[in-house]
Every structure is written in structure tokens, then in C-alpha cells.
Amino acid sequence: MHMELLVTKNEAVVQMMRDRFLIDLISDKGNKLNRWNGQIAGLSLERYMSFPAIALVECAGCSADAHEKRQHAERLRAALEPELRDEMAVFLDGEGRVCLLFPWAVRELLETVQQRFGGRFPFATNIGVGIPRSRFADLHHSYRQAEQSLRHKFYKGSGQVIHFAEIKPYLPTAEYPYAIEEELGYCVKSADHAEEIECKVDLFYERLLCRGPIRIDEVYEMTIRLLIGLEKKGLADADKESAYKKYEIMPIVHMETLNEIKSYLKSYLTELWKSLLQKNGHRSIIEKTIQYMEQECQHASLNSVSQKVYMTPTYLSLLFKMSTGKTFIEQLTDIRIDKAKHLLKHSMLKNYEIAEKVGYHDSRYFSQIFKKKVGLSPSVYRESAGK
User: Fold this and answer.
1) Which of 166, 192, 216 is the last residue of a domain?
2) Which residues, at least 6 apart from 64, have a Cβ–Cβ distance to it below 8 Å?
3) Over 90: is that where the pLDDT of 272 sits?
4) How many domains are there within the chain?
5) Among 111, 146, 166, residue at a domain's last position
């Protein structure tokens, strides 16, 4: 039946048969390959038989949705096929990825493919290249190597042609750089500039990979371990009311390159650093506000104090409540009553004089507030204190 279809010279049929043959070939389905004996010529594959190799092409960073990824692959194949027909066979593998079958002599063309077609799509184009084989039947080895080469984009970055022959074996594990985690935690709390944090993130991965590349899943694990370590140091509770956003694990493990992970960490830790700076700045403002209230409790008001700390009354009132749990008036009343208690104990001033000194012009209102806060009237409190 296959021969009858091929005899028709129907281009669509030949294309379909060639794709099925190539998928069987790279899938190492030995039993199925026997049925193709003698038909390579009919499939127009002779030109690719001189030290053939497999390359895999993908658009980096596209959606993880399988249907959308296949659509990208089909568009990429449609763009590649007309221009590579004489040098390479273009087809989709069983997972919907673009594959190139080519004779090793034209391997330099892969760089041109990456450069020429990378700009036509919204994503960078990665190409993983396997080692050439002497027999068509062994091309599944080249295909597996091309897959491993694509995974190495994690280290090499997107928009690259990566040859399997250039990849060093991954180390099974690496020593965790505890000292850099400590330095990074301190840096987030006390750095003067965001660049200091970025340098520490780079140093963390330099130390992690100082003996060479490690398994990619190990890098993910070490990254999550770093974030958990920083969280245990109290950084995650930096400011519950701030815009600080807790890290998320799932986006990290879906990042395709080490540079993406570094960029995420730098951005996350820089935002945390800014949050801490803001919190410390707010603390300083609240301290100054309370200091003004204590020094000038006789005349202090929300409007007068907000002018001294260069804030609007509304924002200072909100910030004060968020930071202390009290309203501005509650804090001012506590300060006035504490000062009144001191004067009642240690002076001979009359009650109405004390009321005026702490900011109450109505002595009866002062007495009401004092009794509400202390449980005793000013006169009874003075007597109980021995005056």
C-alpha cells in the first residue's frame, strides 16, 4: 500500500509518509523501521544521509499550554520548510516540536536559521543539536542528544544554538553556600543601594556552580532553599501592611533559564529591601511625631504635628494608626494624662492650671477625661499620691 501511495507522486501523501517515517526513526521503534526498508529514496531523504544529525528548534518562553505550543511549532515549521527544503528535512516530532534532519556538512546553516527566523517570532529561538551518526537507524541517539542540548539553555540562555558536544557533564550536587545566604539576608536589611543585593544574588550562584554546572532540578531546589532560609530570618514578616509580596514557588520552577531565576530573585529581594526601607522610614516619622506631641502637648494638634513631619493630617493619622494601633488623639490623650499625673504628684499647681499646661482649657472636661483614663478624679489621685 505504501508503494502504491508513493507511486502517485502526491506531494501531500509523500509528506505525510515522510513525517511518519522520521517520527518512527527518532523514536527508536526498531520493529516499525523494518517496514520502511527500501523506501527512503521514495521519501526524498537521500540528500540527508551523509553523516545525518538531528536538531530540535523551539520558541523560548511561549505558553506552557500544549495546544498553543503546537500552534507555535506548526507556524515555525511553515516558515522554515520553504527555505530549508534543499538542505534539511523539517518535521514535527511526537511531542509537537520542530525537528531538523540534516547532513553534518551543512551544520553551519543552523546559526543562520537561528538568526534569520528568531526575529520573525515574539519569542527567542533555541536550537539543540545532536551528534551526527553514521547510520540512519541510529538517529534516535542524535535526537535524544538534541533534547539534552535544548535543556542546557538553562545555563547558556535563550536565543542560542547549543551543540551536545559542547556540554560538560552535570555534577550530581553542590555544596550549599550558607555564608552567602547570611550575607544576602544582612544585605536586604541594611544595603545602601539595590546593586549590592544584585551582586550578592550573582555571588550566590557563582559559589553554587563554582565546580561546574549541576543538575537543573538541583538549582531549583537550592533557589527555593535560599528563599525559605531568608524567610526564616524574619524577612518575610518585614511589613504586613506594606506592598511587599511573598515569593511564589511554582513560577520559579517553570522558569527556563538561570538568568530568569536570577532576575526574579533580584527583583523580589529588591522590592523587599524597599519595603524595609519604607517601614524604617515610617518608624522614624512616628517617633518624631510622638516626640513633638510630648514636647508640645499643651498646643499639639494633628494639623500642627503633621506640618512638622511634612505629611498631610489624613495620611499621618492613617500611618499612626497602622504603626501604633492607636489613633493620634488617643496617643495625645495618653501623653497629656501621663504629664498631668506627674504634675499632680510633684507640683502645687491647682487642677485648672495643670489642665491648661497639658492642653485642656476646660478644667471640668479635663477632670472627666482624667477620671475616665485613671479611674480617679485629679483631686483624689493627688491625695492618694500623698499630696
Assistant:
1) 166
2) 254
3) no
4) 3
5) 166
State the pLDDT at residue 238.
Answer: 52
328-346 vs 258-295: helix crossing angle, rounded to 10: 40
Exposed e or buried b per residue across 228-265, where buried means at least 16 C-beta atoms within 10 angstroms of its C-beta: ebbeebebeebeeebebeebeeeebeebbbbebbbebb
The position carrying cell 492607636 is 326
In the predicted model, what is the mean pLDDT of residues 353-375? 91
Give the per-residue pLDDT at 186: 87
Residue with cell 545532536: 130
pLDDT tens sequence across 191-238 = 878 899 999 999 999 999 999 999 999 999 999 999 988 887 755 555
64 DSSP assignment:
S
Whether 345 maps to a domain, the answer reads yes
Using a cut of 0.70, tell me whether the model's pTM lies above it: no
173 falls within a domain: no
Residues 335 and 261 in one domain: no
308 burial via Cβ count (<10 Å: 0-12, 13-18, 19+): middle
Q: What is the CATH number of the domain that holds 310?
A: 1.10.10.60
Give the pLDDT of residue 51: 93
Buried b (16+ CB within 10 A) or exposed e, 164-197: beebeebeeebebbeebbeebbebbbebeeeebb
Residues 115 and 216 in one domain: no
Long-range contacts, stretch 115-120, CB < 8 angstroms, 24+ apart:
116/83, 117/76, 117/79, 117/80, 118/159, 120/79
Q: Both 28 and 162 in a single domain? A: yes
The answer to whether residue 323 is domain-embedded is yes
The range of the structural domain enclosing residue 201 comes to 178-279
Q: What is the per-residue pLDDT for 6?
A: 44
Q: Are residues 27 and 144 in the same domain?
A: yes
Which of 37, 11, 41 is closest to 25 using CA atoms?
A: 37
CATH number at residue 36: 3.30.70.270
Query: Distance between CA atoms of 62 and 83, rounded to whole angstroms?
Result: 24
Tell whether 266 and 305 lie within a shared domain. no
pLDDT score for 369: 92
**Residue 150 within any structural domain of the chain:** yes
| CA angle, 220 then 224 then 227, to 5° | 145
The pLDDT score that the predictor gives to residue 244 is 44
